[in-house]
Amino acid sequence: MDFKFYKTGLLSLTFFLLLFSQQAAKAQRGGKTHWATDGYQYYRVQNGQLVELDTRDSAKKTVLVTKEMLTPSGQPALRVENFYLSDDGQKLLIFTNSKRVWRYNTRGDYWVYDMEAKTLKQIGKDLPVSSLMFAKISPDGTKAGYVSGHNVYVEDLATSTVKQLTFDGTKKLINGTFDWVYEEEFDCRDGFRWSPDSKAIAYWQIDASKIKNYLMLNTTDSIYPFVVPVEYPVAGEDPSSCKLGVVDVTSAKTTWMDVPGDPVQHYIPRMEWAGNSNQLILQQLNRAQNDSKIFIANASNGTTALLHDEEAKAWIDAGDGRDPIGWNWIDKGKAFLWLSEKDGWRHMYKIDRDGKETLLTQGNYDVIDLNLIDEANGYIYFIASPDNATQRYLYHIKIKGGKAERITPADEQGTNGYEISPNGKIGLHNFSNIYTAYQSEVISLPDHKHISGQVIKLNTNAKNKPEFFKVKTADGIEMDGWMVKPTNFDPTKKYPVVFYVYSEPAATTVNDAYGNGRNGEYVGSMADDGYIYVSLDNRGTPAPKGSEWRKSIYKNIGIVNIQDQAMGAKEVLKWPFVDTSRVAVWGWSGGGSCTLNLMFQHPEIYKTGISVAAVGWELSYDNVYQERYMGVPIDDASREVFIKGSPVTYAKNLRGNLLYVHGTGDDNVHYRNAELLINELVKYNKQFQLMSFPNRTHGIFEGPGTTQFLRTLYTNYLKEHCPPGGR
Questions:
Q1: Which of 97, 138, 244, 337 has the most CB within a 10 Å radius?
Q2: Residue 624 pLDDT more than 50?
């Protein structure tokens, strides 16, 4: 379920994780630093020109491609939205004129600037405008591959000759990219890979022909309403069929990989070339996502061999981290790194080509993210935080395994992120904590010495800092939380408390990162107006506290997380300065669902709720997300857990004040959820306030005035039903 960080004010951690992903940006949506081969220089676009910067000298800047060079004849200069350099550094691939596909702008136009010939050419120029996706220059630098209209193409960069490699692509038969649910729940967008020898392309084919369309109704953009269909497999419905092909660039002949099992009842969220041009490596998940298999496939004849198999009682995450692009090879391609929670913690394992598995990280801590494999110096860099689940630090460990060593200095307590140069000697370090805004610097590694940029400095003069705390519930569950007290707080008075919730496996809310403690939906300052603002992370959120913490929500969304939040709130309400008659809760998406369940299941605690874009009925949400955490609903017994956790089931218990907000054009959490909820509240004469935004999507930001209207509505409702100020 999508975590709408940009709407909650909790931008920090999610943005931070996206910003520092090591490979996903290269093929999918930008943001990655483009390093020179020596690992000391890197490339940026500044003022419309490509420049080379030196990490060791912040004043040094070399212009490689000027704005004039990026200006097509008779046209304005290209607006560079992203760029990529060929492996030999001679060709610059430019992404521009982009259009949105579901969440991100992943289709557009591509141009190639030849550094040697000093020519600028558009590729795919005879195809529809802004229709190219995921263009990539071949490893030998002679061709470009791209997707348009759900087909794969290749273009010779010298002659501009275009060759179509697949011909059966339609809106429902998708080559080289993915359907809605793969993108939303597996973060899969770029669906093809060049072979190392540039002679073939491996690609996904998704067959969504049997996926039913959810029909959204647009009643405002024309005289007559029209239907907007979105392919959307709800929980209990079969997924799309998925298969992998390798197409020969010369003959345009595809060889299909013979992956065992029913292609409808399995997912393939990851695939790469296996360090050579004749083998692919892929991960297959069963539909319940509790059995992960890794196969090696022969690209020439399609045969496959099982390399690794892992089963779990709950679910297994796709891939080995948040990054769906790349495979982490070590030992000169003889083995790779893989993350698993099989021993109760998220640890790093070495798996060789014979399937032999070796545990590298040991101890009661989670590997949060893998940063760099520095084989030359014998280290692996990764993010972890063994002692504080709200923070993030850089560690390294020897490739052969052993004890992890913290690299981040002890005085930089908060959220630390790193993009490390290929040579392992330079790090672009980003830091913030809950009261210190984002700062960045260039450091040397492994000694973490400052080289250039801003010197990291905590904002010790910050006023009214959010405070971290822990509560232990009557059930014995200890949860992390933060609290922002009112400005000019008077401990002899009692103040209203507003809980911000998310509570599901997609995200945490209690992070020592800038932006936490802020409420982007509130007009003005909650603290100045006299509110206590609080958030708690319950079991089931992806905090680095071990798999038992994270997986306890399995088949219990709407139950375990609600119990933890309510019992945690009861502990907060024991504080002498909290007014138990003025208690509000709010959330968006999964947080909206949590808000409803808290209002309905624990009306004795929460007096006011504001729920935005909530899943009211779990059986109406997509199969990949909901079945991962709740099981596959194949009969009445397995469907019962979905019903038991759904807010609609408990709507008759509403006693407090409820504002419910939803966009009618939400293609993620469909408006059907709102109408099912409305019907149930009407059935039991439970009065509430509804705000429907015509044709707005899950983020509810489209259209003039929308954001300010929602913020004003939110603020006025909260002030009216949960008045601010100490008493």
A1: 244
A2: yes
Average pLDDT over residues 478-493: 97
pTM (two decimals): 0.93
- In one-letter notation, the amino acid at residue 640 is E
By the 8 A CB rule, do 50 and 92 touch? yes
Q: Which long-range contacts (CB under 8 A, 24 or more apart) does 549-556 make?
A: 550/341, 550/505, 551/312, 551/313, 551/314, 551/315, 551/341, 553/504, 553/505, 553/629, 554/313, 554/314, 554/315, 554/629, 554/630, 554/631, 555/629, 555/630, 555/631, 555/641, 556/641, 556/645
| pLDDT at residue number 22 | 29
State the Cα–Cα distance between residues 583 and 609, nearest whole angstrom. Answer: 9
- Give CA torsion, residues 642, 648, 649, 654, to 10 deg: 140
Alpha-carbon distances of 29 from 107, 182, 274, rounded to whole Å: 10, 16, 24
Beta bridge partners of residue 119, listed in sequence order:
114
Find out whether 410 and 436 touch, Cβ atoms under 8 Å: no
Rounded distance between C-alpha atoms, residue 525 and residue 686, angstroms: 31
The partner residues of 284 in beta bridges, in order of sequence, read: 293
Burial class for 210, CB neighbours closer than 10 Å (0-12, 13-18, 19+): middle
Exposure b/e, 584-619, CB count within 10 A at least 16 = b: bbbbbbbbbbbbbbbbbbbeebbbbbbbbbbbbbbb
560-572 vs 590-601: helix crossing angle, rounded to 10: 70
Is the separation of the CB atoms in 246 and 257 below 8 Å?
yes
Residue 2's pLDDT is what?
A: 56
Question: Would you state the structure tokens that stand for residue 56, as one six-digit string?
Answer: 């060791």
For residue 529 the two structure tokens come to 């107006």
Q: CA gyration radius for the chain?
A: 26
How many CA atoms lie within 13 Å of 86's alpha carbon, on the beta-carbon side? Answer: 23
The secondary element (H helix, E strand) that includes residue 571 is helix 560-572
- The C-alpha atoms of residue 558 and residue 505 are separated, in whole angstroms, by 12
Average pLDDT over residues 207-229: 95
Helix/strand/coil for 433: strand
The 8-class DSSP code of residue 316 comes to -
pLDDT at 71: 95
- Arithmetic mean of pLDDT, 551-577: 98
Question: In angstroms, rounded to a whole number, what is the distance separating the alpha carbons of residues 206 and 537?
Answer: 36
Residue 203 region by backbone torsions, left for phi larger than 0, else alpha for psi between -120 and 50, else beta: beta
Distance from C-alpha of 72 to C-alpha of 70, rounded to nearest angstrom = 6
Q: From CA 633, how far away is CA 231, in angstroms rounded?
A: 20
Average pLDDT over residues 339-352: 96
Mean pLDDT of all residues in the chain? Answer: 93
Give the pLDDT confidence of 153-167 residue by residue, as tens digits. 999 999 999 999 999
- Looking up tokens 């375990």 gives 560
Could you tell me which of 379, 400, 367, 384 has the C-alpha nearest to residue 446? 379
The whole-angstrom separation of Cα 688 and Cα 662 is 14
Residue 10: is its pLDDT beyond 60?
no
Strands 495-500 and 532-536: parallel
Separation of alpha carbons 168 and 151, rounded Å? 7
**Measured distance CA(570)–CA(558) in Å, rounded:** 18
Amino acid identity, position 75: Q
3-state secondary structure 402-425: ECCEECCCCCCCCEEEEEECCCCC
pLDDT above 90 covers a percentage of the chain that reads 90
Q: Tell which wins on pLDDT, 33 or 429.
A: 429
